[in-house]
Amino acid sequence: MSPVNVLMDVDTGVDDALAIMFAVAHPEVNLLGISCVAGNAALPQVVLNTLKILDAAGAGDIPVAAGAVRPLIAPARDASHVHGADGLGGIVLPETNRRPVGQGAVGMLRDRLVASSGPVTIIALAPQTNLALLLRTHPEVAAKVERILSMGGSASVGNATPTAEFNVWHDPEAAAIVLDSGIPTFMYGLDVFNHVAVAREQTEALQASSRRAQKVAGALLAHRIGMGPGREPVYTGLIGDAGAVCALVDPDALRVERLPVFVELAGASRGQTVVDRRQFPGEDRMHGLHSAVGLTDVALEVDAQRYVDFYLATIAQLD
Questions:
Q1: Range of the domain at 20
Q2: Disulfide: which of 127, 230, 276, 284 matches 171 by Cβ 3.0-4.6 Å?
Q3: What's the confidence (pLDDT) of residue 81?
Q4: 12 in Cβ contact with 242 (< 8 Å)
Q5: In 3-state terms, what secondary structure has residue 9?
Q6: Beta strands per DSSP E along the chain
Q7: CB-facing half-sphere around the CA of 20: CA atoms within 13 A
Q8: Which residues lie closer than 8 Å to 289 by C-beta, 6 or more apart?
Q9: Residues whose CB is less than 8 angstroms from the CB of residue 115 and which lie 6 or more positions away in sequence, other chains included
Q10: Rounded to the nearest 5°, which phi and psi values hold at 123?
Q11: What is the pLDDT of residue 271?
Q12: How far is Cα 148 from Cα 131, in angstroms, rounded to an integer?
């Protein structure tokens, strides 16, 4: 199988870092560039984290570009209570000689898409502000995008709010623009995200490795997440965003349905991905409401152990 041309859009926290390492390691992923956006941490920290993780993975010269510092409309927020103040759970990584490219994320994404000889898959692991700005500024590049595979949304419960997942909730207008762009979309949301976890013993074995990439992956997986004020941080072992990259090269581990999806932009459910799983149309469809909602491939179930094994076997190829 020929490698898939990939652009990644990240807000590099713990699980984005795990995803980048997997993308660098897997031979079926041809990583053309990485754009960064504020989300899990402020933009300068996200860029620095991305550069350092590329070092840890022993990556080649992959362009990294800084993008949006805040959502299109909503105020800037971060997830430091999940990823730590530095976005990487406080793990210490060496200083890097890598530098982001001079142009911004929108320009880099546009140039990489235009220059690609074949279609490109965008893996969106962050609030989709950069992608919305790209599609509004350079709508012609949509023809070069084979599909957008995103870690975002949920067909069930949320995490940022009872109904909304963080990446979509952080910039719901951007997510709606991307979803309505006409580009084929694949949603790897919380329904599968929350199930793919590495056992503590395997994480400890990675931490004890003498190989740089293994130790870094182990440290990231070992990060304990605070689950609320006054509650002790807990070990989850989730590979998180990395599962979306696994889905690119091993989609058969997922049960996927093509369903109508739209983003709620107002009220208490703002940021919710409304996934229509009804067997028959309801009153809204009968009266023409939401009639323009497009179809999205939504991952609903996952063979979690298959992805854990796949992830660990892939990063074992790194030095």
A1: 4-315
A2: 127
A3: 76
A4: no
A5: strand
A6: 4-10, 29-36, 64-66, 120-124, 145-151, 185-188, 224-225, 234-235, 254-263, 273-275, 295-302
A7: 36
A8: none
A9: none
A10: -100, 110
A11: 97
A12: 10
Cα(36)–Cα(15) distance, rounded to whole angstroms? 14
Q: Please tell me whether residue 67 adopts helix, strand or coil conformation.
A: coil
Q: Say what the pLDDT of residue 290 is.
A: 63
| pLDDT at 227 > cutoff 70 | no
Residue-wise pLDDT for 237-257, tens only, equals: 999 999 999 999 999 999 999
User: How do beta strands 120-124 and 64-66 pair?
Assistant: unpaired
Band of residue 78 on the pLDDT scale cut at 50, 70, 90: confident
* 113-141 average pLDDT score: 97
49 by DSSP, 3-state: which? helix
The CA distance from 124 to 131, in Å, is 8
Domain count within the chain: 1
199 pLDDT band, cuts 50/70/90, is: very high
Amino acid in position 147: R
The answer to whether the predicted template modeling score (pTM) of the entire model surpasses 0.85 is yes
3-state secondary structure at position 83: helix
**Residue 109: its pLDDT value, please?**
98
pLDDT of residue 150: 98
**CA 190-66-117 angle, 5° bins:** 85
What are the angstrom distances between the C-alpha of 153 and each of 26, 77, 264? Answer: 25, 17, 11
